Every structure is written in structure tokens, then in C-alpha cells.
């Protein structure tokens, strides 16, 4: 599918109310396969891989959440989807929150899994707060996602380090979302993270507490890779929230 100046890989499956899945940084749609499979029996699930991820070729220059949001809106336009329930993981959660702020008419609800408002939200495995820790640092996810990247990317396996370098620059510099601005979100929101997440639990609480009526779920015994560690539970929580959100 063509959006802007890029051809992106897209999947659309199922019937029912529309749900948009947004993957994390250095992830492909394979990372959300369990959630997609759980939703397609009752929802029409839209998903695409951003430039430099999965089956979509990379772009020149650095990444930015502003372009990611614009590409997501353009994808909905190209897919003929006026609005959707947004389920975003990591970078996808950030995009979902920004869409709810800047494009509220396109968002029916947001499930924000392991998202953050600023680069200061990260901590290492010992619980020490770090100023600019990439979400995947210190966990097994990058190796799994690298295998997916090397198998799927049209840019070839050697381009993975280029993508990671650009992502590290992004994660050290963005986003910068004022918690006070989140009060403008009117869509139902579920904030989710792992209790051993590299996103500090107090940061997830801050996000949820800043959004009127938002729900918070901290999944026990999980890290930033919670969607792979507890896929059935995560999918159940998403389905229950979507039923409530209507």
C-alpha cells in the first residue's frame, strides 16, 4: 500500500468494528500476531509495517514520531478506515496517544502497551533510572526481532544496524509529551505495562492518571516484552477493554 512517499506492507483481516494494530520499534507485525489472531474473529483488524520495519523498506533520514503519526493517518485514509480502536505497543503506544491528542476523530479508543511520554521513563534491569535507555535494552526481544528483520526486510539483513542506530537516536531524543496535555484525550484508554518493564511503573501510572477515566494494568512477572511473554492474557485484556469501549 502506498502512503506518502513509501510503499508499506499492510494486512487487513476479520469483520466487525475496526481495530488498528501499531507495532513497536524494531518490530514487525509478527510481534503482534497473537493479538491479531485473537481479535480477527470479532473485529476488522488493520495493520501495517512502518518504514524500516518488517517487510517495508527503510527511508532516508532519521525517524520521528511526527512522521509516524502522519503515516498512520495516511494509512487509515488509504485503507478507507474513518476511525479505529488503536492498539499500540511501545513506539506504537506513543503513536496511539499522539493520535488521540492530535486526531481525536480517528481514534475510538487507545490501548497503550509499554509506551512513554519522554526518554527519562526508562530504567535498567536493576531498577536504576536511566536518561536514555532504548526500550529493548537488556532484554531478549532484539535478538528475536533481528531474526524476523533478517528474514523479512527488503533492505537485507545487514541494514538492521542502520535501523537500530536511527531508533536509538529517536529513543534518546523523543517523545516529549506533557502529561497535562493528556487531559485533552476523550477516547477510552487502557494503559498497560509489565511490572519489570523498562518503562518504570510510576511512569505508566502517570500516563493513566493524566487521562480522564483511563484504566491501568500492570502485568505481573513481565518485562517490556510482555506481549510475547503473556500473549493470551494480553489478548484477553485487550478484548475485554474493547468490549467496554464499544
From TrEMBL:
InterPro entries: AB_hydrolase, AB_hydrolase_1, AB_hydrolase_fold. GO terms for biological process: glycerolipid catabolic process. Residues 19-233 form the AB hydrolase-1 domain. It holds the Pfam family Abhydrolase_6. SUPFAM superfamilies: alpha/beta-Hydrolases (SSF53474). GO terms for molecular function: triacylglycerol lipase activity. This is AB hydrolase-1 domain-containing protein. It comes from Actinoplanes missouriensis (strain ATCC 14538 / DSM 43046 / CBS 188.64 / JCM 3121 / NBRC 102363 / NCIMB 12654 / NRRL B-3342 / UNCC 431).
Amino acid at each position: 500500500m502506498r502512503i506518502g512517499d513509501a510503499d508499506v506492507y499492510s494486512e487487513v483481516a476479520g469483520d466487525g468494528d475496526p481495530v488498528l494494530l501499531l507495532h513497536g520499534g524494531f518490530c514487525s507485525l509478527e510481534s503482534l500476531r497473537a493479538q491479531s489472531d485473537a481479535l480477527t474473529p470479532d473485529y476488522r483488524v488493520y495493520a501495517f509495517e512502518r518504514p524500516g520495519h518488517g517487510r517495508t523498506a527503510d527511508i532516508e533520514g532519521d525517524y520521528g514520531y511526527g512522521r509516524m503519526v502522519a503515516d498512520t493517518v495516511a494509512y487509515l485514509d488509504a485503507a478507507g478506515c474513518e476511525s479505529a480502536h488503536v492498539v499500540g505497543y511501545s513506539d506504537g503506544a506513543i503513536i496511539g496517544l499522539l493520535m488521540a491528542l492530535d486526531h481525536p476523530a480517528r481514534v475510538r479508543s487507545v490501548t497503550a502497551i509499554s509506551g512513554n511520554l519522554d526518554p527519562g521513563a526508562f530504567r535498567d534491569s536493576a531498577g536504576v533510572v536511566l536518561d536514555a535507555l532504548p526500550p529493548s535494552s537488556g532484554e531478549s526481544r532484539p535478538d528475536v526481532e533481528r531474526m524476523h528483520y533478517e528474514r523479512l526486510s527488503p533492505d537485507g539483513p545487514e541494514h538492521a544496524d542502520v535501523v537500530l542506530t536511527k531508533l536509538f537516536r529517536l529513543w534518546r531524543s523523543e517523545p516529549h509529551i506533557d502529561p497535562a496535555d493528556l487531559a485533552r484525550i476523550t477516547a477510552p484508554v487502557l494503559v498497560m505495562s509489565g511490572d519489570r518493564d523498562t518503562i518504570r511503573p510510576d511512569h505508566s501510572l502517570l500516563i493513566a492518571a493524566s487521562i480522564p477515566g483511563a484504566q491501568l494494568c500492570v502485568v505481573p512477572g513481565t518485562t517490556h516484552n510482555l506481549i510475547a511473554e503473556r500473549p493470551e492474557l494480553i489478548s484477553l485484556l485487550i478484548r475485554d477493554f474493547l468490549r467496554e469501549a464499544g
